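Form 7-S
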Amino acid sequence: YGLTNNKQCIKCLENCEECSENYTKCESCKTGYGPLLDKNEEETGKCTKCTENCRQCSSNGTICTECETGYYNVEEKGQSICRKCSEKCESCITNSEFCTECPDDFTKCTICKSGYGLIISGEKAGQCGECQANCKSCKHDNSICDENSCKKGYGPILNEKGEYKGQCDKCPIN
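Output:
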């Protein structure tokens, strides 16, 4: 709420989260809206709708600073817009392929969706690939099953010292 000229409390303008003492001057916009700029690139105190699937934006809604969950930010034709992450992805930042988190350089995935693990080497290194068919999870390396993640009917393969090798094998039928 803000004040009118005669000091009465009144609700802020539409799409405005917080306004100054002057109810017509928005200080922060609601989610999905950003500051409206005038021809001199100065904030007008009003809010405008962000691009589709954008939570927070600037520059008359054309520069998205935070996308909705399940979308990542990409620049196209002078605009910063949100694109949908891969369907194998719980969330992503700049790379739509499989990953839920990426490091600062946005080139490689660091965490994969359940049932997928990082591909460690080769052409697809840094992307996520399906775990082996006989294991439920393989977070750090898609070729190594996580401990205690063998699917039903499979058990861990141990080395001669009794240590888990990261592989699961079919249980013998008795």
